[in-house]
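Notes from the pairing session

We agreed to fold both candidates in a single pass and log them together. This is the raw record for the first candidate, unedited. Please don't reformat it; downstream parsing expects exactly this layout.

Candidate A
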Amino acid sequence: LARAERLPPGSALAVARGGSTDLARVGDADLRMLEPAALLDGLDERSLASLADPMPTDRDPGLRSLLLASGVPDLWPLLEVREVLPGPPRAELDEGAESLRAGLAPVLGDRVGRRARAYDGLAVRGALRLERAEEVTLTVDAWVHRGTLYLTPAALRAPALLAPALSPAPEARSALASWLDEGAREKRWEKPLRSARGSEPRAPGESPGMFSRLRRWLAGEAAPSAPSSPVVLGTPTMDAASARRGSSIVPGAERDATFFRPTAELAEQLGGGEGWLEARAKTPTYGLAFTPSRIEAPWTYAPNLAVARFDRRGQRWEPTTLARPEPQGDAGVIAMRGRLPAGEILLPVPLYGRVSELRVGRGDVDVRVTARGATVLRLEASAEVRMRIRLGRVPDLDRARPLRDADDALASFVPDDELPDETREAVLDLDPHDAPIARALALRDFVRERYRYDPSYLEDPSVGRWLARVTHGRANVHVAALHAAGDATHLGAGVCYELNVLACELLRRAGIPALVATGWVLDGGALSEPDHLWAMALLEDDAGAPIWVPIDASTTRDGRPLRIPRRPPGRFRAPSDQEGKAPPPTRWDLGSPPRGAAEAKAKPKRKRPPPRVELIKVLHHLGVLAGRPLGPEERAEVERSLTDPKAAAALLDRLRGRKVD
């Protein structure tokens, strides 16, 4: 079954072990790929430090497949599943699921269970087989548990995605994936594939889309999919891995139903734009119309996901554990009406808002607010809904200070050498005596002025593929793509993803904790796809209560979020104007410069600080050139000369008096 190339036993590999670089050989007991990332939560520090992770910074999907075929395991073999957590049942796909199981059973026997069921989303809960293991929950495409083969529509369309469920052993999993893919190409299980695929459109110029894309994955050109629908901005809603493979979009209502599903992480989106323009031109099946048709910031923004920690290896953002601020007081009302899909639904509640009334069909329904402040409900079938959201007052931003105990939201994720000098200096130019909100808005305005909004890589997939190639291996591929598009006028160009991820990095460098958030914007009277991304400054009031402030560098001058092109409104009639009430403007207009005479005065430009960035570059160059890097004491002496006149004079005297051979 196995056709993949293998590394010979004993081949030497560079590994990361306990925070340092080392060498290990294929076959060593401690050699293990530390993925999938969701299982890392099940490792304690001692276990993590004892494992040798092969080539983590260079491990692209092709190398990952090669390592698996060579017997190098990942974390899958350690997972002991105790419970399966299926999503909403897909009874119309059960016949296809059973047909697939029956087709596999003559070869795989009981490994595919005794019955099969289809579900719209699937997760498993368990622990790693270690001495001190934490409980983990992981989204999967398929699993076999207590005689039942659980399948998602993605696994029915691409049977190779069953491989992790059928065998955790690396060589066997690689061989099974190849065999399952071969069977799919030969249409051995055409009935289940046809029932799941339906009328799925194909990307222009591709043969039966899913199979050709799966072959590219097995050849090492992309990563396997996950049904948890990580957010991919600017492309048709799909799972992030399918977006990276260039997957065809999911058809019609099935795609639109994902707009309101909870999401697990934020993935990168370069190279996955095939078909997105066509998808955005279609009228959505599900969505909401609302009044007032435009709401000012911060109420403009309704997050569906807020992320804090960036995983460079997987180019993914993981959700924050921080809870949204609770709304206080009454500032206005938003009325919404439309249609929502079946399943667990995440409601588009704006910042500082709370659902005060919700009716489904002709009756009321219970909603719940999660520990992190999200508002969710569960529908057994798609339904018409009416909803009222009360908006709380915006806290006092003038006296707000940076949120304490938010270390994950302060960690830089882009090294100095991957940012232009002017961008780093924008942080150094800030006046530390200014209020944090003033510094945050100054950084937002810097990004708006020195960078350009440009959706080219979404409109032309070949541009996205080129950017994916030239940014491979960089700390954050979206920040790298932003600067790869720079020109004589602007430092870079990109869409909301790139511009606001950079804004998040600059906020953190300025000592202001910041998240990256995705979700809906309440602008234009209708919403469906959560297609915008922004940075979120984290502040707190005198009592320590959190204050979340959207910082959006991807807006027009009057604060309207840029989304090109906008989706057409759904066929939903907006509530009457009398049902909504716009909140009064805030003193700090978060879409444009602050109001008020004091803020309107032209502020003298702050004296530029000493050129430490340039100095570090010069010292590094001199050390390399001379073959003798400067020590800490020498470097400290040179840095003192930037601010201390006596130290500067002493250094100049030494340079002038030194004899050179």
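Candidate B (folded immediately after A)
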Amino acid sequence: TNTATNTPTDTPTNTPTVTDTPTNTATFTPTATDTPTSTPTFTPTATDTPTNTPTDTPTATDTPTNTATFTPTATDTPTSTPTFTPTATETPTNTPTFTPTATFTITFTPTLTATTIPSPTPVPAGRMPYVQDMEGDGALESWEYDPLKWQLVTEGGNVVLVGQSGLESSLEILGREVPEWQEPSEEDLLIQMRINAMAADSIGRILFRHSDQGYYALEFQPGYMALRRGTSGAIVRNTEQMLRDLQVPTQAGRWYQLSIWAEGSRIFVYIDSQLWLSVNDSGFALPTSGAILLQTRSATSGQVGFDDLIIQRPELASEHFQGSTLPTTWAASSFTNVGLDVEGDGNQYVRLSGDAEIVPAVLPLDNALIACRLYSEQGGFTARIRESGQGAYVLKMEAGNMQIQQLNGQGDVLQTWTRQNYYGRGKWFDFIIQTSSNRLLMYRLGELIFEEEIENAPPAGGLRFSTSGSDSLRIDDCLFTQAAFSSTIDAQFAFDILSTLETRIIRDGRWDWYEFFENQGNAYWWEGGAAADPGEYVNDEAAAERRRYYVVQTGGEAVARRFRPEVDETRTVFGWGEDLTTYRDSTDIYIKMYMRLPIDAPDGSTGWLGARSEPSVTGLGLNQYQLELVKGPGDTVTARVRANTSLDQAIKFEQVLDTTPDDWHELIIVTLDDRIAFFADGRLLTVLRGVELLGGTLAIGVEPNSIVDFDDLVVRDTSVNE
């Protein structure tokens, strides 16, 4: 076998930016892995600068190069147990008045106000939940900032906000509007974002509840975090009161999910789904409303990145249990076995012992975040999520382990999973669960330990904690939110891969292949070889760019060329796709190609790049997922993502590209496990999850009556460390 390969002359990967995708995806999503990126490219339009007063500028230091990591997470194989019938206490109900057992009835007395659930349609500026993922031309519209100090940049395929402002140039979120979080009626607030202290001397500051009476400032830097309180008037860091500071395991150049929950005088800060900082401010109360600002401490060094901002209200049942009685937004089965207790430092909590249940009065939770601190004194406990007459998730804790069950409406156990060593006795731990459509995610110590897409997942429902026998459980600091959505969160795996490939060694001909279409030298890579080559190799010395390329012109029949799996001599890149649980044999690759619909191509000309390409059952076509370019009237070009499988022929995405006649277009497809991300001209188009095809190779093709040019195909394995 001829193993000669071309030597690449250009950088094999790039860092595409992102456009809004039509499918919303959950963003509070604390992440178990770091998602680094960096490289400025875009400067937004100038706007006015807020007049915050500087007082302190640190010495400039060099900015180190950012590093990147990516860690795929395997999941367990669910165990089917369709014949098991749980006891009466395991059976969810769907009545307006919740009845946990036959011996008592829990009735909710408060009148609840619905938390707004985001939809694909735009909402007025400043309405909550407010979501800004920094994508699109109007990402910073109505924000108050200095464009010389704050810029949107492209990093690892994602658009992020990067600041190097100093204390004299704060950025105010929606500073040209009056957002809801500044209205006096607002009390509790949840602020979420991704943050990256890009250099060793980077210090980012998030100011909230900022008003003429003062403000809070959270400082974030590598290895350290602090909460400070400022006085009225100008922002003067030297006069701020230190409320609490601590060392944290954060590093320069890595992205972290940061969440700030402010409820009254209490402030909780989470990093990557783990509670790190909590403060009860005993000073005079600041107004619960106010502006939200971003700063960096230095204007000369230490850039800080921000992305995926969400500002929203917690659910009314979110609670710290500091009152004299159980909150009216919680209902207990027994005031004998459920009550408030206090720790030595004065912190109060709810305690369940023996046969007891407690239920927060939340709206039916669908796409939601559930975050509580729990403390198992003795025995175990059970938590039920999305509980209704149509099913539930049941989480049983026993002997430090967690068993996860999916129940249907009849109480039958459909699937069961187990996580060992989930909790311990005699200490507080974070109980953090996220649900998003049919996805269930669970975290432990900031690490994602469970992620499954569950068939026939239970619909929206309630939440219930229970103990029995000799069990004893403490509950405190419960945060509930209906999850807001970011357009890019589902593509985070692809951004991670793009960043990783930038620094990974090229193994040309082993795990990486480059086809420059200069001649038929690599024709054996394609099925049929040189004899089946349908195109022509062009050398246009007059062209300004891409002088050598490959052109295919079709008549009444389509043409397709599939990459031969035998080219992968290691048999580790192009998989069989038979492992539906851990995806150890999936085809996980990065594909980049340039495509053009030339001026002389007739309207309707269509070319495509396919991934996970396999012969159909008849052998007359290909099953795959493909990214198409279609020429329309007036030399318009439409990008279209299509499934082409035995079960799915649907168009998943369609959008006209910004283009001029005779333009080349960069197409990128990234596949990992059961997910595929599609990019065109450096922008994210869409992400497919739970795809049917897991194996196969790749292909290019041209539809009937079309003229399409191809150039510079790059194929790289994305799972060489598996």
